[in-house]
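Try it yourself: sequence plus hypoxanthine, in.
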Amino acid sequence: MTNQFNIAVSAADAVADTEFLTALPKAELHLHLEGSLEPELMFKLAERNQIELPYASVEEIKKAYDFTNLQSFLDIYYQCAGVLIHEQDFYDLTWAYLQQCHAEGVVHVEPFFDPQTHTERGIDIGVVIKGITRALKDGEQKLGISYGLILCFLRHLPEDEAFATLNQAEPYMEHFIGVGLDSSEVGNPPEKFSEVFAEARRMGLKRVAHAGEEGPVSYIEGALDYLDVQRIDHGVRCTDSETMMNRLAAANMPLTVCPLSNTRLKVYEHMSQHPILKLLERGLCVTVNADDPAFFGGYLLANYQSLADNLGMTRQQAAHLAANSLNASFVGDEQKAVWMEKLAVVCAG
Ligand code: HPA
Ligand code: ZN
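Structure, out:
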C-alpha cells in the first residue's frame, strides 16, 4: 500500500513556517554522528588531544567545505574525525548533536557511526560505542529523546573488514539496533556486502544502506534484493526509474532523504530541483534528514525550512513528512501511536 496520511491539518495549503516545523514531533533517521562535528568542537578536541589540524581557524575550515561531489566531502570528513580519540570526545560529539535536536523538536534519533574510521586509527571500538551510548542515554533521560544506534560499514573497504568490525562490536550488541552501509558509493555496490548483512540479520539486527545517492537505480535494487534492507538511505536516484518508484511505493519502503546534503554534494544544483515533494505526492514514504549537518549547513529543522523556502512545502506536506519519519523508525507501534496523537494536536493548532 502506498504511503497514506490521514491527520487533519489546519491551514493545510499554507507554506509551513518555522514555528510549525519546530513544533512537529520528528524523528531523524539519517545522521552520521561524525558529520555533526562542528568546527568549534573540532578545534577544541584537537587542542585537548594535541592533534594538529591542517586548518588555522574555524573560518578556514568552513571555506574548505566547498564540495563538488560525495568523495570531495568524504576526504575532509574522515580527516576531521581524526580529532576523536577518547570516550569523552565521542560523548561530547553526541551530546552536542542531541542538544540541537532538543531545540528543534526532534523526539527520536537513529544515528549512524562509522567504527572503521576510528578502529583504523587504533581506537578501540568499545571506546567509541561507550562514549556515544552514554550521551544517548543522557539524551533520553534529560532531554526525552529516544534512540536506536546504527553501526555503518565503510563500503570502500572489503567485506572481510566489515565482518571483523561486526565481530569487534558483538560484545556491545545491546547498544546498537542495526547496521548500515556508507562511504564511497559508485564502484561499491550493495552485493559486495551481502554476506555480512545476512549475518547481521541472523544476529537480529535491522538493516539499512545508502543507495541511489550518486549511484544508479540498480544499487537501490541491490540493497533491497541482496541486503534485505528495511530502509534506503538517500534513494533519490529512484526518479530515474518508473518501475523502481512504483516498487518503493508499493512496498512502503522508507527513503531517508537529505535535501541540504544533496545540494551541497551537487546531486542537485539547486534545492528548487529537489524531487522529495514529488516523491511524497507519488505515494513514497520519504523522510527528511540532515546527513552531516556540520558540513552541509544545517540540522534537521534547516532541512525542513529549506523545503518550505525553495519548494513551497505546505503544512500538510511537512506534517506528512514528519509522520513518515516517526512511522519509518524502528520503534514499536505503541510508541508510534503516542507520537501520532501528539502530531495531530500540533496539526490541529
Ligand atoms: N554518503 C555516503 N557516506 C557518507 C555520507 C553520505 O551522504 N555521509 C557520511 N558518510
Ligand atoms: Zn549519509
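One thing you can check immediately is this: The chain is about 50% helix and 10% strand.
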